[in-house]
Sequence to fold (173 residues):
Amino acid sequence: MTELTDNGKIEQTLVLIKPDGLVKSLTGNIIDKLSESELVIVGAKIVAVDKELAEDHYKELKDQKFFDDLIQYIMGAYHTRRVLALVYEGENAIKRVRHITGDTNPESANPTSLRGKYGRITTSGVFENVVHASSDPVDAKREIQLWFKPSELSKAIFETEEKEITKVETVWK
Ligand code: UDP
Ligand code: MG
Fold:
């Protein structure tokens, strides 16, 4: 555990409870386990993931053979079209959350980690590992900015600017 508290840097990280995590009613378990990190939630929302968001989120993996299946998975084709997106903030947030989340492959993940406990590998080879967590500060910033607008977070964690945007939006009738 000492390595987890080595530099004391305040970071933010994106956590997604993936469609399998939601369908398996694991939201409470996952948030409960993450609360052991003593990090603070500064953003939370349910998202119906479209193809553009899915492909952008996983753009670094587009040459992998599992990419198409991964896009289907995160869009909810196998479970439900919902993802719970969360932003956690605090000391060494990225490493702390990755530690609780566990290895990418649920079969090699520590059995007490979220992925070790609740993940599985499908017959087509996709790692359904119930939760996403940013892997480094560059990814974390990119991912948080992809999933959240500044106004959707409880505080300004990155630099913002004022911009006039004209667009058609669905509003309450
Ligand atoms: N994934 C998969 N098979 C693999 C590697 C990754 O199905 O061999 C899926 C898995 O759901 C993983 C996601 O692709 O969480 C993103 O992969 P990455 O290598 O970024 O792992 P992570 O950062 O999520 O641990
Ligand atoms: Mg990753």
Notes: The pocket of magnesium ion (ligand 2) is lined by residues 135 (CB under 6 Å).
